[in-house]
Amino acid sequence: MIDLHTHTFLSDGVLTPAELVRRAEEAGYLAIGIADHADASNLEQVVSAIVRFCHETGRLYRHIKVIPAVEITHVPPAQIPSMVAGARALGARLVICHGQTICEPVYPGTNHAAITAKVDILAHPGLLTPEEAALAAKNNVYLELTSRYSHGLANGRVAKLALEHGARLVLNSDFHAPGDLHSPGLRKKIVLGAGLTEEDLKQIELNMRQIVDTLFMPGIAV
Ligand SMILES: [Zn+2]
Ligand SMILES: [Zn+2]
């Protein structure tokens, strides 16, 4: 299993990065992205801390790869491009944007701004539009299905529009606490529950493997 969107107590998760990674390794994860919430107030602090953890500790795990990521969260759309650039400059290897989930007042225009800024993953896009799905396909932005119960209420819509417009999907946990870790069975249920098929699940797992393989290509330091 691969999970590219998790949180630690560097934002609103409950575990240290070390405990999160160890629990994920024990659960059978092959790779994990640590993507704590950030805005202009804490981008440098959060990304620098995750990068330092990945550099100093990530290499010591035997069975799991650890990816420094970030989730740009509740930032006004006009500020998203500079936040994306800032996150990459600080060393985030995956930049996620907290999309327009139906359960929070995320600023209108956030999905479009994130896709235009070419984030790597648009998390829980909520009431994604066909135009946004098409632009995500064009800009190589992955659209997220999530097991997080509230954000996941729009999974079916996201899955349908992604398939229709050729956008690629990922499936993440949005981990905040130990009960949020995935199992293979849960991943299958979430994908089938979104109206997709077992073939689609295979493609999603392949998409995620490709993201990780690209990040860990020889000569590239994560
Ligand atoms: Zn989020
Ligand atoms: Zn999140």
Description:
With 222 residues, this protein is an alpha/beta fold. 41% of the residues lie in helices and 16% in strands. It is built from 8 helices and 8 strands; from the N terminus they run E-H-E-E-H-E-H-E-H-E-H-E-H-E-H-H. The chain has helices spanning 17-26, 43-56, 80-90, 110-116, 130-138, 155-165, 184-193, 198-215; strands at 2-6, 31-34, 37-38, 65-72, 94-98, 121-123, 142-146, 169-172. The chain is globular. The mean pLDDT is 97. Bound molecules: zinc ion (2 copies). Residues 71, 73, 98, 123-124 line the site of one zinc ion.
Q: SSE string, helix = H, strand = E? A: EHEEHEHEHEHEHEHH
Total strands: 8
Characterize the main sheet: 8 strands, parallel
**Averaged pLDDT:** 97
The small molecules bound here are: zinc ion
Question: Could you say which structural class the secondary elements and strand pairing correspond to?
Answer: alpha/beta
Proportion in helices: 40-55%
Helical segment count: 8
- Rg from Cα: 16 Å
The general outline is globular
Oligomer: single chain
Span of the ends, CA to CA: 19 Å
Low-confidence stretches: none
- Percent of sequence in beta strands: 15-25%
Topology:
Elements: E1 2-6, H1 17-26, E2 31-34, E3 37-38, H2 43-56, E4 65-72, H3 80-90, E5 94-98, H4 110-116, E6 121-123, H5 130-138, E7 142-146, H6 155-165, E8 169-172, H7 184-193, H8 198-215
Parallel strand pairs: 1-2, 2-4, 3-4, 4-5, 5-6, 6-7, 7-8
Helix pairs in contact: 2-3, 5-6
The site of one zinc ion (ZN) has 5 residues, from loops.
